């Protein structure tokens, strides 16, 4: 395995994606909304909202909390109404939405790298290089996965700072992240990044344009929305155990998809599609 | 004989379509070998098969003694390919394009920058090295693509329609570069083209292809002989020759036909050895000869004769 070639392919793909404004527009906008706008909104809101409005909200929340696991309920014990609202919204309700980022970033880069290269008619020259099929594949996957994870982690960091700063007056201490966020960041996020790229690679053999690939692989966001709905309805709650189990399942799906992708990623089939 | 490419009964089938249908040829070191034919003749597929991009359906090929189906990476390390479209990364600069492919070709980090500079200089692109390729003209892109194919100094070069889509000036420039490369560096070149003028100018031997098969193979002279078995010679006189000059020539051994018009005479002979006899006869009969031109067949004549025969 020639790692110099693999990194060269990954670096080249990233340079190319950096120039693709269609790809990067949403990739920059969404972290800004998630990491800065939403935590400020949900932290400041209860500090300026009338107490009766919060009580009305918490009336609904109390019903929800009855369905929570005891370990999660314990986190809310002894908190003021406003603190409960901020904690519930920023630490729990927004959590699954953060999984959109690794999925979206890796899908965007993957679509540009695998399908965009074919669309721009640059694939043939790459296939005439001495890089092996596996080196080409790994270079392209790394180009999608590494920045997706890095950018997600950076967004988490900004979010952590934003939540603590915005709610410091209310809590009087640095209270975020909660323990459930560690497996979310370091177990589930990389799994979702790999899910985005492996799904894109599989889809790439069946579509002709970058946009088609982007849209098809983007439909995986439904998974994230299902998690949000699960939390709102009380069916599924992202505690440490749930995140670990969910992460393991996604890693297994990743393994299967990557295996299928490698099996399909052959020079002879790629050149036939040019 | 030092054959760099040896191809034997090579076939590649896509469904019902026989893209390459049992071709056999060899290319010697330092030779410029042309694959000629219309679109769909099988030229590009042949280049792909020889570089191990596609596995053959049947038959064998050896490049540097290696089988492309099993040693594709080793072969591609020693070949440079100019694809039909430049296939450059338009969002990257000329330098970034060359650096990327130089890395893939295994040029050591220490030599990489110097080698890229050399190529940019040689192809007169140094002043635009940092510009994005999307701002380049077609001719500049083709020169950059050629630089990419040569960055690792490959002993074997495949050029697929190198002047396709270029204006005559840019095409001339690219052809001059190719001619210089082969004469100066002794590289072996396989030129896949349907541009007959280009092939006649650059190739030592050609294989004329159609529908995946080789219709004829050889140098221009060999192909002319194979096709026509006769030679035409055009003779121009200082003053109009006598009335019966054509008739008297027809009586000579080896002369097939002759026809005069004004100061010009066209004579068809069995072979070039008959021409001195024709000249001697005309001098002896008192004709004043100004010019004698044995007529050369062009590759165009040969190509269309072959394709017509195929049709």
What does this entry show, briefly?
The complex is a heterodimer of chains A (274) and B (311). Chain A has helices at 3-18, 21-48, 51-66, 70-76, 81-93, 100-119, 123-127, 133-171, 181-204, 210-218, 221-233, 240-264, 267-272.
Q: Which features characterize this protein?
A:
heterodimer; A: 274 residues; mainly alpha; B: 311 residues; alpha/beta; Rossmann fold; Alpha-Beta Plaits; six-stranded mixed β-sheet; 11 helices
Give your account of this protein's structure.
The complex is a heterodimer of chains A (274) and B (311). Chain A has 13 helices and no strands. Chain A is mainly alpha-helical and 274 residues long. In chain A, helix 2 packs parallel to helix 8 (133-171). The two termini of chain A are 26 Å apart. Chain B is built from eleven helices and 13 strands. Chain B has helices at residues 43-50, 72-77, 94-104, 109-122, 138-150, 168-185, 196-202, 220-228, 245-250, 275-284, 299-310, and strands spanning 3-14, 17-28, 32-36, 58-63, 79-82, 156-160, 188-193, 205-210, 213-218, 231-237, 255-261, 264-269, 289-294. In chain B, a hairpin with a 2-residue loop joins strand 1 and strand 2 (17-28). Chains A and B meet through helix 1, helix 7 and helix 13 of A and helix 2 and helix 3 of B.
Uncertain residue ranges of chain A: none
Instruction: Indicate the CATH architecture of the largest domain in chain B.
Output: 3-Layer(aba) Sandwich
**Spatial sequence of strands, sheet with the most strands of chain B:** 5-6-7-3-8-9
**What structural category arises from helix and sheet content of chain A?**
mainly alpha
- The amount of beta strand of chain A, in percent, is under 5%
Roughly how much helix do the residues of chain B carry, as a percent range? Answer: 25-40%
How many helices of chain A? The count is 13
CATH superfamily of the largest domain in chain B: P-loop containing nucleotide triphosphate hydrolases
């Amino acid at each position: 395995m020639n790692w110099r070639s693999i990194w060269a392919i990954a670096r080249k793909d990233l340079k190319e994606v950096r120039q693709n404004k269609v790809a990067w527009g949403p990739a920059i906008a969404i972290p800004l909304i998630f990491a800065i706008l939403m935590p400020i909104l949900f932290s400041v809101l209860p500090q300026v909202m009338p107490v009766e409005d919060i009580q009305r909200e918490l009336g609904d929340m109390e019903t929800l909390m009855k369905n929570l696991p005891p370990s999660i309920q314990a986190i809310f014990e002894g908190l003021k109404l406003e603190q409960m609202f901020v904690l519930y919204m920023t630490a729990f309700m927004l959590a699954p939405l953060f999984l959109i980022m690794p999925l979206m970033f890796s899908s965007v880069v993957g679509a540009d790298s695998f399908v965009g290269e074919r669309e721009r008619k640059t694939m043939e020259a790459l296939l005439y290089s001495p890089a092996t099929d596996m080196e080409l594949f790994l270079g392209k996957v790394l180009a999608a996965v590494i920045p997706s994870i890095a950018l997600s982690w950076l967004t988490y960091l900004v979010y952590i700072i934003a939540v603590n700063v915005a709610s410091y007056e209310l809590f009087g201490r640095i209270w975020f992240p909660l323990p459930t966020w560690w497996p979310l960041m370091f177990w589930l996020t990389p799994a979702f990044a790999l899910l985005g790229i492996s799904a894109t690679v599989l889809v790439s053999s069946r579509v002709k344009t970058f946009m088609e690939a982007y849209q098809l692989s983007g439909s995986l966001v439904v998974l994230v929305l299902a998690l949000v709905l699960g939390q709102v309805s009380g069916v599924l709650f992202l505690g440490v155990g749930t995140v670990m189990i969910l992460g393991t399942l996604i890693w297994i799906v990743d393994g299967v998809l990557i295996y299928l992708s490698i099996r399909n990623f052959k020079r002879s089939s790629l050149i036939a599609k040019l | 004989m030092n054959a760099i490419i040896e191809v034997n009964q090579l076939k590649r089938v896509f469904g019902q379509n026989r893209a390459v249908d049992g071709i056999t040829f060899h290319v010697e070191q330092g030779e410029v070998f042309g694959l000629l034919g219309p679109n769909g003749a099988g030229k590009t597929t042949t280049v792909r098969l020889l570089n191990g991009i596609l596995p053959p359906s049947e038959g064998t090929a050896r490049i540097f003694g290696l089988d492309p189906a099993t040693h594709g990476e080793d072969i591609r390390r020693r070949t440079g390919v100019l694809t039909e479209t430049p296939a450059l990364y338009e969002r990257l600069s000329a330098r970034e394009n060359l650096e990327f492919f130089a890395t893939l070709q295994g040029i050591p980090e220490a030599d990489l920058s110097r080698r890229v500079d050399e190529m940019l200089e040689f192809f007169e692109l140094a002043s635009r090295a940092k510009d994005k390729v999307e701002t380049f003209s077609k001719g500049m892109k083709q020169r950059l693509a050629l630089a990419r194919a040569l960055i690792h100094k490959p002993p074997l070069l495949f050029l697929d329609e190198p002047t396709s889509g270029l204006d005559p000036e840019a095409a001339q420039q690219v052809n001059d570069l190719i001619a210089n490369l082969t004469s100066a560096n002794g590289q072996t070149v396989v030129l896949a083209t349907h541009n007959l003028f280009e092939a006649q100018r650059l190739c030592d031997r050609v294989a004329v292809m159609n529908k995946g098969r080789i219709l004829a193979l050889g140098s221009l002279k060999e192909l002319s002989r194979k096709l026509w078995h006769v030679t035409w010679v055009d003779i121009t006189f200082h003053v109009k020759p006598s009335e019966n000059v054509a008739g008297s020539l027809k009586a000579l051994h080896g002369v097939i036909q002759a026809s005069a018009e004004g100061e010009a005479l066209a004579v068809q002979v069995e072979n070039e050895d008959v021409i001195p006899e024709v000249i001697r006869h005309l001098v002896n009969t008192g004709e004043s000869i100004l010019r004698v031109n044995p007529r050369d067949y062009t590759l165009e004549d040969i190509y269309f004769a072959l394709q017509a025969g195929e049709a």
